[in-house]
Amino acid sequence: MIKVSGLKKAYGKHVVLNGIDADISKGEVVVVIGPSGSGKSTFLRCLNLLETPTDGAIEFEGKPITESGVPIDALRQSMGMVFQQFNLFPHMTVLENVTIAPIKVRKLPRAEAERDGLALLRRVGLEEKSGTYPSRLSGGQKQRVAIARALAMKPHVMLFDEPTSALDPEMVGEVLDVMKSLAKDGMTMVIVTHEMGFAREVGDRLLFVDGGVIVEQGDPREVFANPKHPRTKEFLSKVL
Ligand code: ADP
Ligand code: MG
């Protein structure tokens, strides 16, 4: 579904991604871990061209997306993204947050968008909050709305950038449960996370990123049990 070859990203002289190769299959759940500043967010942002790669190539569903003339809006619709800071529209109700893009971008009739939106809110356990404004929600509820909003565009892949890092500990589980159910339904997902238990349980593959390269990858259970690279060992010794 996604093929990344020799991906590089630099800001001026600061090289942040220094040659990333990764193939992500349909239905695969890839978890990305690594120290702060190692380039994890930049990697995700390059996948949907929120950042323009300096070098290398990315293919999505068989088509090169890093060449000029690619319809970026259509591409972004196919890739849902969920951020650490939920980025909900504060002046819109929960249901409006979820239906605005389908109405404006997918040109769905309002009634249809609302029916789909309510179904998505039910899926994340928040149907009864449809008329509420984001300021009245807990962090965990906000993040579940953000996930429903991303799903409303019917993405083919979901990108998550530390979706639980801004949450109080007691709210982490409810967001991870929603992500687990997406994984179970076969959604292709790339997830940057510090939740090692989740990575072990839900990840099909783990990428350990350090210094802008994939230092080690493999089955999460195997990498956790038997990290091969010294940098992986050192990182895991601090977080496990
Ligand atoms: P991570 O998500 O692993 O913590 P990031 O991808 O956010 O790492 O950042 C990697 C490095 O790139 C950091 O040193 C960060 O300061 C730098 N960086 C990220 N975005 C920008 C930007 N827009 N301009 C300049 N430097 C940036
Ligand atoms: Mg980051």
UniProtKB/TrEMBL annotation:
SUPFAM superfamilies: P-loop containing nucleoside triphosphate hydrolases
Cellular compartments annotated: Cell membrane
Membrane disposition: Peripheral membrane protein
SMART domains: AAA
MF-aspect GO terms: ABC-type amino acid transporter activity; ATP binding; ATP hydrolysis activity
Domain (ABC transporter): residue spans on this chain: 2-236
One GO CC annotation: plasma membrane
Keywords: Amino-acid transport, ATP-binding, Cell membrane, Membrane, Nucleotide-binding, Transport
Superkingdom of the organism of origin: Bacteria
Entry similarity comment: Belongs to the ABC transporter superfamily.
Protein name: Amino acid ABC transporter ATP-binding protein
Taxonomic classification: Bacteria, Bacillati, Bacillota, Bacilli, Bacillales
